[in-house]
Amino acid sequence: MSILTIAWSAAAAVSFSLAVLYLFVWLRHRTSLVHLLFSISAFGAAGNAFAELSMLRASAVEPYIQALKYSHVFIFMLLVGLVWFTYLYFGVARRWLAVAITTCWCLILFINFLAPYGLLYTDVSHLRELVLPGGERYSLVVGTNSMWRFLADISVMAIVVYVMDTAVRAWRLGGKRGTLLVGFSITAFLVAAGIHSGLVDTGLVHTPYLITFAFMGIVLVMGLQLSSDVVRSAIMSKEIAANERRWRTLLEQVHLLVVGLDPDGTVNYVNPNLLEKMGYRSQEVVGKNWFRDFHPEGECERSRTDHEDYIRGGSYPHHRSTITGKDGGELVITWSNVRLYDRDGRVMGSLSIGADVTAAEAAFKEIEDLKERLQEENIYLKEEVVLDQDFRHIIHSSDELTYVLSRVAQVAPTDTTVLIEGETGVGKELIARAVHDASPRKDRPLIKVNCAAIPAGLLESELFGHMKGAFTSADRDRKGRFQLADGGTIFLDEIGELPLELQPKLLRVLEGGEFMPLGGTRTVKVDVRVVATTNRELKREMAAGNFRQDLYHRLSTYPMTIPPLRKRKADIQPLVEAFVERFARKLGKQINQVPRDVMATLAAYTWPGNVRELRNVIERAVLSTNGPVLNLAEDLRSLAPEAGETGGPGSQMTLEQAERAHITTVLKQCSWRIEGEQGASRILDINPSTLRNRIKKLRIERPT
Asked: Which domains does the chain have, with CATH numbers?
């Protein structure tokens, strides 16, 4: 075998072996294109060696030219691969120059196959046969140089500048000496090959072209540098593996919750303690998206966005989040986060170490709820006088009220819903309080809601609460009175005034103990006893379509009716004595006698306003009395309803007729003034807005 064949075949074999080796390296890891680009360059060097050997052994022009054209294809592979290898390996190369060189070589290939004699020659006359010192013969082409040949020369010169510039830039930025050595070595081989080729073309040197060996040298330098990197990488990988084993052992034994995430939120590690807390196995968590699969729906998007911002360099070192276990339960975790970096300094994910604070969070939330509930209860107790605190006991002597109190004693120990009916002012609130005070719920609050005093548009929010943003002025969540009464009793005063559209919601609470706050999405369950009062005849309201039949039957599980004061005359005297004593003490007076004629007058009056009216009459009498004997401030006969309205004291009136007559009488006495110290609302002891509603409902008109 000839020297030419051995030398060029050896160069091809070396380049081809390195190409195959690093192709397998790339196929195995596929972590970087550097190994693939080196393999392409090495394949180009091997192919060029075989093409040059074919040219040296050619005996005719045509085979020589064909081999020369294909040689340029392999040179394209080597040089373009070298350019992009340099760009990726050093990381500081000028991209625009790499693109320009690649574009130039694409143009060179196009011209190479378009021209009849390739890129280098416009005309070929013959092959020149030369002899090596050892006597071996080889061929070189003789022809006219092409005008496009300068493209190849410019491209090679650009590659030399590109490689040297990149090596120097990398060295200045702290690159190792090996980096500069690779750059100078590649430059030296290219320059040497270019000079030698020029000497051969001018006839000053009579040897074959040695481009093959220059390319082999470039491939060897690149391969040795990559091999050094592979060895270092293997050593580092072992160290990393050892460190990872130590850290993994620590993370798996620590009594904390640990989860590792890729930049996109995919779980790549989770320690046994967290798996135990969540109730999952490792294969059920690793590979899943942490935020989409293990966070509640309302928290998923926010947590994912915060994590992505943290990966990009934002601040997210500590946070609290809720995760969902396999059984659907929620765990509240406080996390501390750290970024994880690869060998190139790029963020490869994050590691979150957390502690389970679910129990502490629940306790804290319970304390906050209790605090908020207490604050809300205090607010309501300040806004509403649940009952008149001056009545420590229910004052009575009549058999009628004694019977009512016996029924209270029967129903109070149960959780049965109670409906108390009676005219305005008969003491329905006192009976409601008596039911609560005698019940097992007496240590919990009695929350009062006056359905007639609260505007219809606000009543739903007052009863059931609302969420932040439910309406324009809802700037925070607020619990309704049903939630405040949880475990206790809610007193629905004037239930007949409840708007028809709210009645189904109240029925749901009575039947199932649950409701949905205004603007809310979750059902709230409560344990509340309901005591309702009304001065209306609800059966008549049902017939008129103003009250639901099913709600009435649910409310009237245990109904009781309080007789009006005119039907329990025996209660007038003890009530008068109690009122006189109370108001006299309040005003600093000594009144110890109620004349018989005054008591007889009080007993003969029909009291359309019942006990409330009696209290107001006695208060005015005490105010106007200067001595120890009580004097009435007005003639009760002038306050009695007109005959045409009531049919006289002994006539039978409906509740509505009695209410209209009494309100009309008081309005006349107050010159139709509603508000103020001398207004009818103060005498009747009701809210001015409630009085206006009653005037409108009863169609009371001021005479012109």
From this structure: 3-232 (1.20.1070), 254-356 (3.30.450.20), 387-563 (3.40.50.300), 568-697 (1.10.8.60)
